[in-house]
Amino acid sequence: VAYILQDWWLVYWARAEVSNSTAAPFTSINSSINATPTDGEFHLTFYLSIYSGLTAAAVVFGFVRSLLIFHGLVKSAQTLHNNMFIAVLGTHVHFFDVNPIGRILNRFSKDIGQMDSMLPITFVDFYQLFLQNVGVVAVAASVIPLLLIPVIPLLLFFLYLRRYYLHTSRDVKRLESTARSPVFSHLSSSLQGLWTIRAFRAQERLKKTFDSYQDLHSEVWFLFLMTSRWFALRLDSICSLFITFTAFGCIIFRDGLEAGQVGLVLTYAVTLVGNFQWTVRQSAEVENMMTSVERVVEYTELESEAPWETEKRPPPGWPSRGMVIFDRVNFSYTADGPLVLKDISATIHPGEK
């Protein structure tokens, strides 16, 4: 509001200057000599003070906004990382058998990186631009209220487009995250087994496998970029229509409008072309980046193994003898998995191996 009021105040100021200049010829010479300098100085001080106050308010609000949002988002990312770290440390060993190391590394590197560095900037950018675009429409509607009539169908068309695009974009982004994991996993495994690869002279085979994983990831990434471009073209069409309606509205209703208002509305409307497209792309980007949050939250909810310390404590002198007894033991790796030990009974006496 402070940002838009600055420009609105300039229009008001210009209107006052015009009315003063048109009224000046009708004043007497004596009164103009005595009153004009002080009046002019008063007017200039008044208008400049209000304008400076609005500018200062916009700057202060901008700083406070950024500090609050960044603090909140970075704190959230830190909490999620710590929760995921504790959950992964405390989960069953079976989890590490069924999940390759690349998949786990992907959550701690790329996904946490998105949350730490990219998501806060994109989020702040998105909602700042969103409020600016709302301001553009509000200013245009306050000058020419009939502009709201074409804005409603354009808004509905935009919402339909955004929903249609996000359905695809979100799935493509998930696919990109999934296609990235084998690249990490393969690279990590190759580095760990370098001596084995060299011994069997399997460098070429592993290089081809890595290239195929990387190609697959590049294909998905290119698809994501193309869907963004498709969406951007249609958004620019909506903005062009809005500018057309605004320009013709100013011509049709020119009798009831002032030059300053028309200038303000047209200037604001033209800024929509780049701004609106970028706003929606940033909103989609925020939603796509939330898949990283989704993936991290999934790991914070991992089932934990038994606690490291139990309430039932063994006696102080335990163990007095190194004796292990298996009495009809059945064991499986998962609750619904097949039994790998079936009805095992055995006694291992002290000193036996």
TrEMBL record:
Indicate whether Transmembrane appears among the record's keywords. yes
Annotated ranges, domain ABC transmembrane type-1? 1-288
Q: Which residues cross the membrane?
A: 46-68, 80-96, 134-161, 231-254, 260-280
User: Is Transferase set as a keyword in this record?
Assistant: no
The record lists the organism as Characodon lateralis
Highest taxon above the source species = Eukaryota
* UniProt-listed Pfam families: ABC_membrane
Gene from which this protein is expressed: ABCC4_5
Keyword annotations from UniProtKB, A to Z? ATP-binding, Membrane, Nucleotide-binding, Transmembrane, Transmembrane helix, Transport
Name of this chain's protein: Multidrug resistance-associated protein 4
**Gene3D superfamilies under this entry?**
ABC transporter type 1, transmembrane domain (1.20.1560.10)
